Amino acid sequence: MVFSCKRGYHHGNLKTALIKAAMKQLQEDSLESLSLRGLARSVGVTPTAAYNHFADKTALLVDLKSAALSQFDSFLADALKDIPADQPEQRIRAMAHAYLAFSSVHPALFNLVFNWVPDLERLTEEFMVAGGRGEELLREEIVGFLQQQGQQPDDYQAAIASLSAWSMVHGITTLLKSSTVEAIIYCHNWPEDLNARDCDGCYRMLDHLVDLTLAGLRTGIPLIERHPPSPA
């Protein structure tokens, strides 16, 4: 008698296999379509085995978002590899380009990173570490840029400066992804030079916004006060 069996996942790698299966499914389906039962079926185990690693779908999504954040952080860091540390302006620009590129190369992961937020009590330590790494990387470059301008921002000013740059990059990325900029150019007769239909045009637009943001940071940091003066 010949026996054949399907090799299953032992307890050491099933969790990783489920995360990978979820990542793959997200390339084609929505976040809402994910289910632990479906993922268990896709990797050849019982639902009970999947629930041994994830108490519910939210637990799965927390770990899935942690993995997506780590991939996003690595994508940003890779953009800086060939740029010397003493060139923060070029490094900030490279991070902005990588941010926009990630939204195009990995749209499902980008949406997961920024469009799904769990209740705070469900956050894991891994999630919190991954969630702050990208901002820390940007803040380091922003502080380096400001120091080259002869400024010494405190922690509050550095955080506001980082938030300013992040808001700009995320804002234009979202507007470009949704074709909102392209629609405004068409409907409101903006100059055709503002081309949002191809990569070169989008990155050129982004570069202009980076220039404006950095110009504002050069002069605006002294205006940022942790405790604004009380009204007279």
TrEMBL record:
Origin superkingdom: Bacteria
Range of residues in the leader sequence: none
GO molecular function: DNA-binding transcription factor activity; transcription cis-regulatory region binding
Domain HTH tetR-type, residue spans: 12-72
UniProt KW keywords: DNA-binding, Transcription, Transcription regulation
Classification via Gene3D superfamilies: Tetracycline Repressor, domain 2 (1.10.357.10)
Regions recorded as binding DNA: 35-54
Listed SUPFAM superfamilies: Homeodomain-like (SSF46689), Tetracyclin repressor-like, C-terminal domain (SSF48498)
Stated name of the protein: TetR/AcrR family transcriptional regulator
